[in-house]
Amino acid sequence: MFSTGFTLNDLRFMLEGAWVTLLLTFWAILLGTLVGVICGVLRALLPRATIPLAWLLDVFRSVPLLIQFVLFNSLKSIVGLNWSAFTVGCVVLGVYAAAYCTEIVRSGVLAVPLSLRRASRSLGLSYWQDLRHVVLPIATRVSFPGWLNLVLSVMKDTALVMWIGIVELLRASQTIVTRIQEPLLVLCIAGLIYYLMSWVVSRLGVQLEKRWQQND
Amino acid sequence: MIEIENVHKSFGDLEVVKGVSLTVNKGEVVSIIGGSGSGKSTLLMCINGLEPIQQGSIRVDGTEVHARGTDLNRLRQKIGIVFQQWNAFPHLTVLENVMLAPCKVLGKSKAEAEAMAVRQLESVGLGDKLKVFPGKLSGGQQQRMAIARALAMSPDYMLFDEATSALDPQLVGEVLDTMRMLAEDGMTMVLVTHEIPFAREVSDRVAFFRDGVVHEIGTPDQVIGNPQKPETAAFLKSVI
User: Fold this and answer.
1) B103 and B110 Cβ atoms separated by less than 8 Å
2) A8-213, what's its fold?
3) What pLDDT is attached to residue A211?
4) Residue B46: pLDDT above 90?
5) Where is average pLDDT lowest: A36-45, A68-77, A128-137?
6) Which of these, A115, A118, A128, lies nearest to B76 by C-alpha position?
7) Is the pLDDT of residue A1 over 60?
8) Quick check: ipTM above 0.85?
C-alpha cells in the first residue's frame, strides 16, 4: 500500500511558503511595473536621450538573477543597509522586473501607429493629452500579454530568493524533502501549487483581454 | 482664408513641395489633383502644422502657421483634417471618438459634448452606431466617423487627404455624399482627391499639382473640362 510521511502540517508549511512567494511576486511586480512604465515610456519617446538608461537596464536583464541576489545581499552588508532579506528579495526582483517591463512598455508605445497620433494632434490635443488619452491606453492593450508573461515568470523566479535565506514555497518544499525523503511527492505538490497560482493569474489576464478584444 | 506663399518642403534631401502658392477663400472648395508624389498630401499636412516647412509661409486667418510663437493646438481647433487611413481610435466607442477632443481640448461638459457628437454622427448617418467600437464598422463608416470627429470641433476649415482612396469602391459613394453635404453647407474645404468627377462637381477651383508645384489652376470647367497644359490633359486621361 501507498504510505507517506507527508503530513497536513507539511502542507501548511508549504502553503505558508506559497504565501511568501505571492507577497514577493506582488511587491516585485508593483515596483517593476511602476519603474518599468516610466522607463519604457521615456525609452520610446526619447530614444536618444535615454540610451544610458538602456545600458543600465541591460545589465539587469543580462546578469543571472541568482548572481544579482547574492551580490546585492553582500553589497547591502558592506554599505551597512539594514534591510531584511525579504526587502532585498523584493528590490532585486523588482529591478529585474523593471528592466523587462521597460522593454514591454517601450514596444507597446512604439506599436501605436504614428498616423493615429497625427490624427489626435490634428484635433487639437496637446502632446500630453495625446499621450494620456490615445497612446497609453492603446499601448496598455498591446503590452498586456507581455506583462502577464512577466508576472508569471517573476512568480517562478522568486524561488531564487531562498539563496539569501527566505523561506518561500520551494525552500519550504526542500526542507520537507530533507526530512521525509520523498522528493517526487513533495516536488509534485509544490509544482501543483505553483501551477494553481499561475493559473489564477493567467485566468484573470485572459478575462481582461477578452473584454478588450470585444472592441476589435 | 488660407494663404500659401512659395512653400518649400523637403524630407531629408528629397524636396517634395517646390514653391507652391495658393489662396483658399472663405466658403471656397478647392480640389487638388495630381499624380502620387506630386506633393499634394504633404501640403495639407503643412497647412495645420503637422509638418514643418523649409521656406515660404502659410497663414490661416492671418496666423502664421510655422512661426515660433504660434499655438498650434489652438490653430488646429479650427482646421479639421480627414486622412486617407481614417485613424479611428480603436479603444474608444464611436461616440467617445467624437467626444474626446471637444471634452479635452475645448473643455466642454460631457453632456454638452455628447449632444454635439450625437448630432454630428446622426448627420453622417451613424446615429445607430454610437456605442459600437470602430473595429466593428466598415471602412466607409469609419471614414464618416472621422469626418464627424473633425466636425465636432466646429472647424472653420476642413482638409481631406484622399479621404476615399483606401475604401472599397462600393463604399466611396457614402463618404462622397457626406463631403458633398458639407460643401453645400458652405464649409471651406481643401480636397486632395483622385475622384475627378466629384472634384469637378463640388469644387470652386481645381489645382493640378505636378512635381511639387501648381501646374495649372482654374475653375473645374477650365482645368478638368478644357485643360490648357498637355501634362494636365495627359494626367486626366490616365485617371478617368
Assistant:
1) yes
2) MetI-like fold (1.10.3720)
3) 83
4) yes
5) A68-77
6) A118
7) no
8) yes
β-strand partners of B20: B7
CA dihedral for A62, A63, A69, A74, sign (positive or negative): negative
Q: Which of A115, A125, A141 lies closest to B101 in CB terms?
A: A125
Determine the pLDDT at residue A216: 64
Residue keyed to cell 547591502 = A76
Q: What is the DSSP letter of A132?
A: I
CATH classification of B2-239, choosing from 3.90.1150.10, 3.40.50.300, 3.40.50.2300, 2.60.40.10?
A: 3.40.50.300
Q: How far is CA A80 from the centre of its chain?
A: 27
Alpha helices in A3-135 (DSSP H): 8-45, 51-62, 65-79, 85-110, 114-122, 127-130
Q: Is A215's CB within 8 Å of B90's CB? A: yes
Average pLDDT over residues B98-112: 93
For A119, the closest chain B residue by CA position comes to B87
Mutation target to probe the A interface, by most A beta carbons within 10 A, among B97, B100, B154 is B100
Which among A123, A126, A141 has CB closest to B153?
Answer: A123
What pLDDT shows up at residue B169? 84
- pLDDT surpassing 80 at residue A2: no
Cut 0.90: pTM above it:
no
Q: What share of chain A in percent tops pLDDT 70?
A: 98
Question: Which residue in chain B has the smallest CA separation from A127?
Answer: B73
Domain ranges across chain B? 2-239
Across the A/B interface, how many CB contacts are shorter than 8 Å?
A: 70
Residue A56 has pLDDT above 90, yes or no: yes
Is the confidence at residue A49, as pLDDT, over 90?
yes
Could you give phi then psi for residue A198, rounded to 5 degrees? -65, -40
Please tell me whether residue B29 adopts helix, strand or coil conformation: strand
Contact check, Cβ <8 Å, A116/B146: no
User: HSE (CB half, 13 Å, CA atoms) of B123?
Assistant: 20
Measured between CA atoms, the residue of chain A closest to residue B105 is A125
